[in-house]
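Checklist before submission:
- one chain only
- standard amino acids only
- sequence pasted in full

Submission:
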Amino acid sequence: MPVRVTRGGITESIHEVYIVAMSGDGKKVAGCGDDGFVTFARSSMKPIQAIPLVESGALEKYKFEDADLAQCCASHSSENMHIERVSNMLTKLELDESFLRCGGHQPHSEETFYGLIRAGRQPTALYSNCSGKHTGMLMYCRHKDLPLDSYHWIGHPLQQEIFSILSELSESPPDTITVGVDGCGVPAFALTIRQWATAFSKFASPESYPHHAAAMKRISHAMRGYPELVGGTGRFDTNLMLATDGRLLAKGGAEGFFLVVDTDNEMAIVWKVRDGNARALPPVVMKTLIDLSLLRGEEHQRLDSYTAPIVQNTLANPVGEIVADVNLEWNL
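Returned file contents:
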């Protein structure tokens, strides 16, 4: 499925996108492109990475709420609400940001970024978009009395448990899963697009997969209940959850990966932009959801600006648009 970027009435650039829509019982409903394409889900995997934390009982032990769990599944923009929550979570664990192994980077939030510049400060690990996830991993290790300084290594018991759960949910033997390192330093895992859809389809119908049902339900509920914490102001995955009043679970990942889970219709959909350019995602996600009849009237209207985003020049004049030419193949 190509996503076209136009200018002056002609196509200037093309992004190829692979799609798999999977029912809650693990059957491919529809798709487009190469579902055998092997890729990393990047931050879209965070709901799976949070399963050991929920199942460990650490949230209850340290009296954390669903909002904190949502922050553990976030790729946040480093807005005040994110930084304050992660900082408070670390304090509650009697830790500080020196324990985080994610490193720092320029915040997504321009307000936060310019505030750091004015203060003459560098963005520390606390400002990493993954600092919530890393804090959740530290929480698990604190609860289990596991090493805190190596929680991000593939050989650590936590990462091995995540690896095992991913193998189970994706129905993929461990020796078929490629292991890499994510941008924030934790292990990243590569599967085919279809295998990723298989894994996330368990979130679409957790009752049919009782082994991790309670954890998947709680993670989904937390993320859908606190979408602003999962991403941030103006972020597509956050706005998709807000526009559907938390009916859909959405989570973006680096290099053009995207996930949507619809528990009402028991369906999970994954997208991968082959060249990694995330600008292709909003229109292709919108078109796919519309074609699958997963958006209702008012929801579509709230998200209309994503259907064919306008390309502007530096004078803020419209000069083109980003258009998804959807051609789903149905498996009926």
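Reviewer check: The longest strand covers residues 10-23.
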